[in-house]
Amino acid sequence: MTSSLDPGLASRLKRTGPDSLGLLPAVVQQHDTGEVLMLGWMDEEALQRTLTTGRATYWSRSRQEYWVKGDTSGHVQHVREVRLDCDGDTLLLRVDQVGAACHTGDHTCFDADLLPLGTGPVTP
Amino acid sequence: MTSSLDPGLASRLKRTGPDSLGLLPAVVQQHDTGEVLMLGWMDEEALQRTLTTGRATYWSRSRQEYWVKGDTSGHVQHVREVRLDCDGDTLLLRVDQVGAACHTGDHTCFDADLLPLGTGPVTP
């Protein structure tokens, strides 16, 4: 596919691969401020563990194992609410995040990289 | 994989399939209230169109075509900000949503389906 997206930006995009098959994306939001903290991935078992323990639990695509958020870092997510979207293909977790949500130490995984708007030819 | 997830809930989950390969999930948030409205999918071209036109544009996995949110419904998303996450695999759009975000007429795609917490055996 041809695209006029800036090549520097395009090279930074990591496209969804086969390791996401069979999983559901889970959007994670701080329950009181509304900040979007991160996006994780779940299978049925991760969802079941999350619902029953109240601790956000994901499937790590890179490590191919379950991970309870915060077990290593201490940056636990206490789950307040879990919602399924209209199509049944996306989850929304409203959590109380302890410490930084991002493994980089940033408060959220979206803090660092604001993309430029309006950088291409504008359709009249 | 065995899971003790409620079978009724499990049957409603639509797992990520091959039609998501090569795309990036885009979390869409109302810029002022912080509400998570929906999750869409983008390829490079959809991202480029979104950045340059300021109108949220996605790749429809079901129709296999680009769709400018609101072109049919009038429920346009004016884009205020686009962010890429720490891993480069997820986008966050902060938008000003006109009308309902969800095709069902709900305000967001997450309004209708709150899952029960604490419904299984609790680990002591």
UniProtKB/TrEMBL annotation, chains A, B:
Pathway this chain belongs to: Amino-acid biosynthesis; L-histidine biosynthesis; L-histidine from 5-phospho-alpha-D-ribose 1-diphosphate: step 3/9
Boundaries of every Phosphoribosyl-AMP cyclohydrolase domain copy: 38-110
Catalytic activity reported: 1-(5-phospho-beta-D-ribosyl)-5'-AMP + H2O = 1-(5-phospho-beta-D-ribosyl)-5-[(5-phospho-beta-D-ribosylamino)methylideneamino]imidazole-4-carboxamide
Binding site for Mg(2+): D85, D87, D89
Cofactor: Zn(2+); Mg(2+)
Assigned EC number: 3.5.4.19
Binding positions for Zn(2+) per the UniProt entry: C86, C102, C109
Subcellular location: Cytoplasm
Keywords: Amino-acid biosynthesis, Cytoplasm, Histidine biosynthesis, Hydrolase, Magnesium, Metal-binding, Zinc
InterPro entries noted in UniProt: PRA-CH, PRib_AMP_CycHydrolase_dom, PRib_AMP_CycHydrolase_sf
Cofactor binding note of this UniProt entry: Binds 1 zinc ion per subunit. Binds 1 Mg(2+) ion per subunit.
GO MF annotation terms: phosphoribosyl-AMP cyclohydrolase activity
Record's function text: Catalyzes the hydrolysis of the adenine ring of phosphoribosyl-AMP.
Protein family according to the UniProt entry: Belongs to the PRA-CH family.
Description of how the protein assembles with itself and partners: Homodimer.
Record protein name field: Phosphoribosyl-AMP cyclohydrolase
Organism: Nocardioides aquaticus
Lineage, top ranks: Bacteria, Bacillati, Actinomycetota, Actinomycetes, Propionibacteriales
